[in-house]
Amino acid sequence: MKQVIIKLNFPYFISKRISKDEQSNFATTISRLAVFSIALGLAAMILAYFILGGFQKTVKDKIYNFKGHLEISKYTLGGNFDENFISLGSDFYSDLEAYEFVDHYQSYAYKAGMLRTKEEVEGVMIKGVSQEFDTLRFQDNMLAGRFVSFSDSSYSKELVLSKRIANKLQLEIGDKATVYFVQNPPKFRRLEVVGIYETGLEEIDKSMVISDIRMVQKLNNWPDSLVGGVEVFVKEGYSKDEAMDALFESLDASLYVDKVSNSYAQIFDWLELLTQNVSVFLVLILVVACFNMISILLILIMERTYMIGVFQALGASRSQIKKVFMYNGMILVLKGMLLGNVIALLVTWLQDQFHIIPLDPINYYMDFVPVDWNFKAFFLLNLLTFIVVLIALRVPLAVITRVKPVSALKFD
Q: Among 5, 17, 201, 295, which is most exposed with the fewest C-beta within 10 angstroms?
């Protein structure tokens, strides 16, 4: 008859029995407190990164969808848009498709003007765009109406206004407005409002009006081959700095390329500052979680002092007894992390689907709290929490080395 030998993991077996056995009301409350503290801390960190990512992505997309990631324009010290033009017949323009990092490119031209109605006058900047303009990217910013139509044989006599300008001038879809252009001799055009957009960014909404680039070309006496510049969209996963350097090498001496983020440096610096704030927030939560777990494990050890003395008297090593409480602490941490993940994912899903938490668009550039499902950050935060708290659990275990069997057995 064969003899079956079962190798028992003594510390793990005891820690499971401790977790399952009925404890005193005080110890039970402490264990639950440990689980909830870990859960709330981890959920707060995950939500912070999901919301931060969503906020940064939303603000950046509002800028990039309107102006691209890179801008190629004429190198000049003057501010006259009529004289700042580049030719689409240049070699660089035909070579843009050859670059692996280029997702899309589109031409544009700016023209300063005055938008006038019967009651009001507003200074605006006309952004002339062509049929190449990526209307799908811009669609999220459209509130009403449609985009400019390019079906006319000469140029479209249509405008897309920001909500801010439309409200100020009391214009609606279908209304006509006169645009006076700043040039010599002065010229004007009677245009129809066909769409209203809103990015939430004051730098764009307060003055930018979208129309047909062919109108700007005709006003400036440009041929079809001349434009104000070219906007380039970089594919996701490619560095914008490296893309800018690669394009710069192929440009003529009279042209230069710049990142759109440099034109909105204050906004992008603010977004980076938010990242630092969230990082500080993460460190503080981890410190609090570690402090809570250290305190709770110390209490549990004090609750089990008599048990420690019994195990020592029966020949258990201090290392084995430490593992008992280490496993017990790990079980509490894992329960807390599981609960924290459920809370974070549930709140994120509810906000993503129903936009429960609103925002003031005047101050935050959007009307609800956005979220970004950043699962890389999700897994890294879980791993970081588990490792840091696990290391912190070793601090209270040093108390076990000071427990003497005789004193422990008298403790009860």
A: 5
